[in-house]
Amino acid sequence: MITFKKLTWKNFLSTGNSETTVYLNKDSATLVVGSNGAGKSTMLDALSFALFGKPHRSINKPQLVNSINNKHCLTTVEFSVGSIEYKIVRGIKPNIFEVYQNGKLLNQESHSRDYQKIIEQNILKLNHKSFHQVVVLGSSNFIPFMQLPSHQRRNVIEDLLDIGIFTKMNGVLKEKIVALRHKMNDTDNELNILKETIKLQTSHISELKKIDSTQEEKRTNEISVISEEISVLEGSNLDLQHEYDLSYNATIEGHEKALSNKTSYTVEISNLKRNMDDVVKESKFYEKNDHCPTCSQGISQELKTSKNKECKNNAKSLNSDYATTKEKLKVSESEVDKLYAQIVHLNEVNNSIRQNETRINILKNRVEALSLTADIQDTTEAERKLSEDKEKRDGLNEVRLEQSTLTSYFDAIGELLRDTGIKTKVIRQYLPIMNKLINQYLQVLDFFVLFHLDDSFNETIKSRHRDEFTYSSFSEGEKQRIDLSLLFSWRQIARMKNSANTNLLILDETFDSSMDADGVDNLLKILNTLGKETNVFIISHKQDLLEGKFPRKIEFEKIKNFSQMKKVKE
Q1: Which residues contact 163 (CB under 8 A, 6 or more apart)?
Q2: What is the pLDDT of residue 541?
């Protein structure tokens, strides 16, 4: 279990040079209040930055440094994993990134990116997205599980079930397969050379036995022709190798970058389409409705005109962005195809080099065989060499058979380690438990639907009357009930698996959004059942509504443009 204990920050966002410290495991529930801009959500950004090097909200890294002091931005988080104590210190101006284990600084020689990988894969066993699915539910820049792409949903579930090890194993296996295939190619080349050599040697011995002195000139001429061909092939290989070395790495890197850009543009187009649909829905709403369907309050013509104008402007802007991104995607796809063609060409160049090398070895062996004919009286040495090469060939055939067997073995393991193998079997075992928990929490939150996730993490939602819905078809308040149910379910699963299990739960303005009074009461019921091992932080504007409902309160205020934390009220 990950137990977060203490968070400290200074010169971070609106916080000045005085350190702000929040103890994360002191009480079962803490209410965090303050006016807009007072710095309530800063603790969430500071925690996210300390752990992952990026804030919770969409804020550029240079903007994290307090704009007045403009230096010495520093965040520190202390936590334990089981019996091991950790402290992460991360700062800007100057840049600081330190990880302490039981008070001892870990090796600083690793590249910062590798250092972060150690934190996420070996210590927390959580990445940035999974952390926010298990620990944080917020109204600002939070992407609920149901709004994540399917592959990101899968990554979250894999982290919860602690089956990411199979992905790592598959990566190691792929590396072994590549290395083995290289060895098999080398073995095949050696065998081909040996077979050709044995053929030449056999022929040579036969020739030795019937050759006479008149054939010496013919032998010399053949050696000369072969030597010329070897020279031409070696020169060609130098040119081919130069071409390959000059552009292969850059081409591979360019292709990977182009693929990344293509993916980014594809995602961006998807998001733009969704946003355009939302604008159309909003426009139709104001065109068709004179009264609010929820509260029956009348909608003025002035408001409708204003909203329609706003929708038109948004639609125009989104259409422009869509066209621009579509063109970028087209350019990116063209670049991907171009670079792929170059990769294919370079692979052909490499194959030509290998073929030339094989031919050169064969020709050199031929020259060697022809040179042996200088002593036409004695075939003993040639026959001894032939016998040795045959033994070597038989040994290589055994090696090749072992390599082929190992390849089949690796292929079988690869099938198990793929997403459709062991991981899917584990996920399918836990899906009934997940769906049961989700529906239980939905009922507690007075949302009586039948929610079902399949093994591709697509949802089916049925009403009491068996009508089918999707997540996007519900109101914001109903979506929030689903988001809360998923969050609490993931935490239950994490506790069962002891994977992403943590004491910390942060609800950022959850009570301030579209949740009604009954929803607030029901959520409080759930929070009261979480137990002593859970430390909940409720960030809210609704101090009057939530006052006295939690054992501890922290209040933030802004004084002379600096956020400060008032004395904690127990």
Answers
A1: 422, 423, 426, 427
A2: 78
Contacts of residue 7, Cβ cutoff 8 Å, sequence gap at least 6: 21, 22, 24, 43, 46, 47, 50, 75, 76, 77, 78
Quickly list DSSP for 51-83: HHSS-SSS--GGGGB-TTT-S-EEEEEEEEETT
Give the tens place of pLDDT for each residue, 279-334. Answer: 888 888 888 887 777 777 887 888 888 888 888 888 888 898 889 988 988 988 89
Supply the DSSP string of 155-167, one letter for each residue.
HHHHHHTT-HHHH
Tally the domains of the chain: 2
Peptide bond into 432 cis (omega under 30): no
The CATH number assigned to the domain holding 316 equals: 1.10.287.510
CA distance 487 to 135: 8
Q: Which of 354, 378, 394 is the last residue of a domain?
A: 354
Distance CA 49, CA 64 (A): 9
Q: Record the tokens describing residue 496, joined without a space.
A: 């069962």
d(CA 177, CA 203): 38
Instruction: Tell me which of 307, 331, 354 is where a domain ends.
Output: 354
- Across the chain, which has 570 residues, the per-10-residue mean pLDDT values are 93 92 89 84 91 88 91 95 93 93 82 77 81 70 76 78 71 81 87 88 76 67 88 89 85 86 89 88 82 78 84 88 89 87 88 90 87 60 84 87 84 72 80 89 85 86 82 82 83 70 83 67 77 84 77 87 76
Q: Contact 321/274 with Cβ under 8 angstroms?
A: no
On the 0-12 / 13-18 / 19+ scale of CB atoms within 10 A, 129 is middle
Residue 255: domain span:
233-354
How high is the pLDDT of residue 500?
Answer: 64
DSSP for 289-316 reads: -SB-TTT--B--HHHHHHHHHHHHHHHH
What is the CATH number for 68? Answer: 3.40.50.300
Is residue 347 a part of any domain in this protein? yes
Q: Residue 194: exposed, middle, or buried by beta-carbon count in 10 A (0-12, 13-18, 19+)? A: buried
The confidence score (pLDDT) of residue 73 equals 95
Count of residues in the chain: 570
* Within a domain: 386: no
Locate tokens 């003993």: which residue? Answer: 380
Give me the torsion for CA of 537, 540, 546, 547, rounded to 10°: 90
Integer angstrom CA distances of residue 251 from 191, 237, 246, 371, 508 = 33, 20, 10, 45, 45
Q: Is residue 322 part of a domain?
A: yes
Q: Specify the DSSP class assigned to residue 105.
A: E
For residue 70, the tally of other CB atoms under 10 A from its CB is 11
For CA atoms 230, 233, 235, 241, give the dihedral sign.
negative
Q: Does 246 map to a domain?
A: yes
Question: Do 94 and 87 meet the contact criterion of CB atoms below 8 Å apart?
Answer: no
Q: Nearest CA to 103 among 126, 125, 80, 123?
A: 80
Amino acid 570: pLDDT: 57
